[in-house]
Design goal:
It contains 4 helices and 7 strands. The protein binds zinc ion. Zinc ion binds next to loops.
């Protein structure tokens, strides 16, 4: 859900749950300063001054997404899918599905899927799913 972030950004995650997003270049600089001990009191990020003691970490968007999901009780199975708390992983039943979804995602990320195509693909995937798993029911 980071469509609005075009430039690569990273998040300075503060202890009380505040997220401060900075450009990747700035993040690299802050990380270097922190690790070298140059920034040992406060750092400047945009128009903010941050007490370095309050920084939990500096994350990229994917890390943060993972962090949030885990915080909400979700867990990631060996197929790389997220499940809700208490939910059993049945991904082994949907192996083909996952492969297709992964392919679809890769195509989307590569940018060679139009919106129309995407909807079509999803429809196809749905039909495929029905074919594969619908027959078990009477
Ligand atoms: Zn699973």
């Amino acid at each position: 859900m980071n469509n609005e972030i075009t430039k690569k950004q990273e998040c300075i995650f503060i202890r009380n749950g505040i997220e401060i997003w900075v450009d990747e270049d700035k993040a690299v600089q802050i990380k270097t300063d922190l690790l070298q001990g140059i920034a040992n009191n406060f750092i400047k990020a945009g128009n903010r001054i941050i007490n370095v003691k309050e920084i939990v970490g500096i994350f990229n968007p994917d890390d943060l997404e993972d962090l949030k999901r885990r915080k909400n009780g979700q867990w990631k199975c060996s197929y790389g899918r997220w499940h809700n708390r208490g939910e059993n992983c049945e991904c082994h039943k949907n192996k083909v599905d996952i492969a297709n979804e992964k392919r679809l995602r890769e195509m989307e990320e590569a940018g060679d899927v139009s919106e129309e195509q995407r909807i079509n693909n999803l429809k196809k995937l749905g039909e495929f799913k029905k074919d594969l798993f619908g027959k078990k029911k009477k």
